[in-house]
Amino acid sequence: MNILYEDNHLLVVIKEPGILSQEDKTGDTDMLSLIKAYLKDKYHKPGNVFLGLIHRLDRMVGGVMVFAKTSKSASRLSKQVREHKIGKKYLAIVHGITEEKATLINYLYKDNKNNIVYVKDKDCKVAQKAELSFQRLNIKTSYSLLEINLKTGRPHQIRVQLAHINRPLLGDKKYGINDKFSTIALYAHQLSFYHPITKEQLTFTSQPLGYPFDIFYY
Q1: Per-residue pLDDT tens over the stretch 133-192
Q2: How confident is the model at residue 46 (pLDDT cuts 50, 70, 90)?
Q3: In whole angstroms, what is the distance from residue 4 CA to residue 127 CA?
Q4: In the chain, what are the domains?
Q5: Of residues 104, 99, 124, 97, the one with CA closest to residue 164
Q6: Per residue in 65-110, pLDDT tens?
Q7: 155 and 142 Cβ atoms separated by less than 8 Å
Q8: How far apart are CA 26 and CA 20, in angstroms?
Q9: Among residues 123, 156, 197, 211, which one has the fewest Cβ atoms lying within 10 Å of its Cβ?
Q10: Separation CA 136–CA 188 (nearest Å)
């Protein structure tokens, strides 16, 4: 496990692509269970270990995540999420050449039964506002490397909004195209928040190494 930071109140780690954020019906490996096992072993804790899941990353998305080690920290970090005080930046590779920078605002509805998200009209009562901005960092052949500043945290938001402007993520078979890439080119590379106890602002950054981001390494 790649741990970036740990104290008595929280733990910041790197989730690898392919690992669930929390357990689902598949029973596959998930971060919540892995970290609980780590804490139980490291601190010789008897019984159940408390660990607060503050936010999620899609299964095929890797990057920085924060978990709370106490209920007080979980409550305060969750409040930051609700008040949009947690900063999230992603790196993404999309098909096509984007604008140098742009802001996207859409209204999204999630069909929970089929686990798919749709873009709806603004007046749709069941849709939620989704906003992000991006800056293009580089171009390679017919691909663009973007840094995305996520303003809201809706399910599948980045994938859906980029596909909606006809710039789908590489490897995104659900919302994009059936391309040659076997994994989604999206990585949560920066996370900023206020420490739940000390109030200090913390920022953690990680760079994706290897496929498919290595397109831009050469």
Answers
A1: 999 999 998 999 999 999 998 999 999 999 999 999 999 999 999 999 999 999 999 999
A2: confident
A3: 36
A4: 2-216 (3.30.2350.10)
A5: 104
A6: 999 999 999 999 999 999 999 999 999 999 999 999 999 999 999 9
A7: no
A8: 10
A9: 123
A10: 16
CB 71 within 8 A of CB 53: no
Q: Which of 143, 161, 58 is nearest to 93 (CA)?
A: 143
Instruction: Give the pair of three-digit tokens for residue 38.
Output: 């780590």
- Indicate whether 218 pLDDT > 70: no
Contacts of 182 (CB under 8 A, 6+ apart): 171
3-class DSSP state of 134: strand
Residue with tokens 């159940």: 48
Place of tokens 């954020």: 21
Question: Which residues are designated catalytic?
Answer: 58
Q: Which residues contact residue 35 at a Cβ distance below 8 angstroms, ignoring those fewer than 6 apart?
A: 1, 11, 13, 51, 67
